[in-house]
Amino acid sequence: MSYLLISSFLLFVPGYCLTVLANLDRFKFLHSVSLSYTLFVLLLKASQQAGMSIVGFGWGYFIIVALLVAGALIKVGLSISPPHRVTENILQYLKRYKLELLSTITIALSLAFYYFRVGPFLEVPADVFRHLEFIKQMNGIVISSVQLGTTLPDAYIGANGKFWHLLYVMLNRWSGNEPIDSILAATYLNNLIFLLGVYYFSKVVFHQSGLSEIKLLAVSLAVTALFFLYYGVNIFSFIRYYALAPVMLNMVLYFTIMAIVIQFFRERDWRIIEIISAILIFTAGALIHKQEALFVVVMVLLMSGYYFVKRIMTGSSLGTSDSQSSLLSLGKAKSVVVFIPLMTATIFLYVYSVLELKRNK
Question: Is the entire prediction scored with pTM above 0.85?
């Protein structure tokens, strides 16, 4: 239970406070989880570069989390006027989002009942054993670093997937548990965050389909259920087989970036704060597990090309002057100026890094 409480807090609250302070009013759940994870990863990377010990990193991390919580509480408190209307504001919030809250609770309780009945997936050849080996190695490194007062070795932490293993170890240390004792709790929480990510991302995808609010929620719940029942590898369920793998939480970072990108191309506005958020989340996602970062690169590049060609064809059908005007439209500018050069460069950099890594082996 302590693992669930500590992990739920640290994987949601810091990011939620950042959304409040930065006025990120969309994709609250996706942003909250992704920014919380991003905060942990980027602060750890910065502490490594500064030569800070793992104990120092822990203190610095909790100080920053406390400052974020205090800042968000102050901002929310100042926005509620007069103060005695707090209860009324809470009731209005619950009334406005009652269907979303009901859907979230339904997913959480259904998954809890499922795991209460079947437990974690520990049958051979479960992927969990491979990651438990990495987690055991990471736990030994953390213990040694704490005893010696040294920073974590960058060569090991920088390896693909190791940021997640470190997060799992640290969450267990902060909750007073051994990593082996939190397998079920971590399995449940990781799966819950992933499925809620699927649910809220589905709402973004189907948002402009003309569905009513209730039908949109029903479709998103159906997508979540289908993911739970059928998404997998060969005969293995994805959420059970990869319960302790870096991909589980990193997929939520992928959903968040793609939600931002989808809305970016749908709208005429340039939401700079969301672009900055996407860049930070992408950076953390690439450090955590490069596979999902590559997913983002490919998908954004394809979407950019699609919208660019679409607007070129639309402009060409309108005549020369209209075509030139269309070339400067926001949709085309977004496709050309921002994403195509950025993502093309990212692909070349990624391929170069992979080839360089193989060359140096």
Answer: no
